[in-house]
Amino acid sequence: MVRVDDCLFCKIIKREIPSNIVYESDTIVVFPDINPVADIHLLIIPKQHIAGIQDLNTEYGNLLAGVYTVVSQLVKQYNLDNNLYRVVVNGGKAQHIPHLHFHLLGGIWKKMV
Questions:
Q1: Tell me, what's the pLDDT at 73?
Q2: Is the C or the N end of the chain the one with fewer CB within 10 Å?
Q3: Which own/partner pairs from 6-13 qualify as long-range (CB within 8 Å, at least 24 positions apart)?
């Protein structure tokens, strides 16, 4: 189990690791994936360390609504509303960093995810 102190995303959120943050609120940060698989590949990450989907419950309803509100704003900002886009949430071994996060993929995919 990765501790919060060792979590790559938590370090980015705390500005211990530099990143090109394109959006930030009190609860969410967004930055480009360093290994993009699409023309637009953004990571939407809750600031609160949540290991994965399995750790969600009804108390996270407002946070999840906030995530999808940000996704909607990003879709418009990046002109994806008339284009192909996908929101992906990985879990288990497919989630390389054990911190809940969402991928916004838009435009042309370089490989399937």
A1: 96
A2: N
A3: 7/49, 7/97, 7/98, 7/99, 8/97, 8/99, 9/43, 9/45, 9/49, 9/97, 9/99, 9/101, 10/49, 10/99, 12/45, 13/45, 13/47
